[in-house]
Amino acid sequence: MTTPRIHFPTSLEPGDEIELGENESHYLRDVLRLKKGERITLFGSPDFEYAAEIAAVSKQLKVKVLEKSARPARQALRITLAQSLPKTDKMDLIVQKATELGAHRIAPFVSSRSIPVLGPEKAKQRRERWQKIALEASRQCRRPDVPEVAPVVTFREMLESEAGSRMKIIFWEEEQGTTIKKVLGEHAAGDSIVIAIGPEGGFSVEEVEAARARGFIPTTLGSQVLKTETAGLATLAIIQYERGIFSSL
């Protein structure tokens, strides 16, 4: 069995004994049925990962740190997926797969054609759920960090929050001449890219023009119109192949 990975974002030293939280303890004890003496990996520290073993099995497991090793280097390219809220539970899938595809940050927002209407408490609950999904996806794909899922904001707030990014792309099915291949070939991305994806009904003309005024480049993915849950993931894969984690394979 592959060594289980548990998120524990704290700096540790060999010999340290720590107590895991209830969720992590339940996962190791009741789901994986690990016993005293079995090995796990702790990840989430800024600089290191830790090999540890289970020291005691109880309601909250205790583990002992055996050794630490340098954490794999962080991606040089930081990609933010700005995703307009889709219908039903599609955002769960988007967060999971965007994490696997190396998104640095996932920024949900509400645009004029978004169907879900979330009150403050519901938006907070959804964000907490999505952050847990991102953590679990990082653990499963052996990613050394966990992407941030930002609070749900309005379209205008999303535009303002991304003002400092070097390359900003907004995908629009009405765009004809500017393709993702052209944008990546002609524009320097620096170390940060934002990709904005619309809801099922797409962006309005007014929204695209507002984004253009703030430095976003309206871009097409081709003649076929992709679903909102497909467009962002396809774009992440393309950018990672050209500039990011897949580019050196």
Number of discrete helical segments = 7
Provide the structure class: alpha/beta
Query: What is the CA–CA distance across the termini?
Result: 26 Å
Estimate the global geometry from the Cα principal axes: elongated
SSE pattern:
EEHEEEEHEHEEHEHEHEH
What is the arithmetic mean of pLDDT? Answer: 90
Low-confidence stretches: none
Major β-sheet, in short? 7 strands, parallel
CA radius of gyration is 20 Å
Number of extended strands: 12
Helical content stands at: 25-40%
- Approximate strand percentage: 15-25%
Structure commentary:
With 249 residues, this protein is α/β, with parallel strands linked by helices. 33% of the residues lie in helices and 24% in strands. The chain contains seven helices and twelve strands. The strands form two sheets. Strands 6, 7, 8, 9, 10, 11 and 12 form a seven-stranded parallel sheet that branches. A five-stranded mixed sheet has the order 1-3-4-5-2. Helix 2 packs parallel to helix 3. The protein starts with a strand and ends in a 7-residue tail after the last helix. The model has no long low-confidence stretch (mean pLDDT 90).
Topology at a glance:
Elements: E1 5-7, E2 17-19, H1 22-31, E3 39-43, E4 48-56, E5 62-70, E6 78-84, H2 90-100, E7 105-110, H3 120-141, E8 148-149, E9 153-154, H4 155-161, E10 167-171, H5 180-186, E11 192-197, H6 205-213, E12 217-219, H7 228-242
Parallel strand pairs: 1-3, 6-7, 6-11, 7-8, 7-9, 10-11, 10-12
Antiparallel strand pairs: 2-5, 3-4, 4-5
Helix pairs in contact: 2-3, 2-7
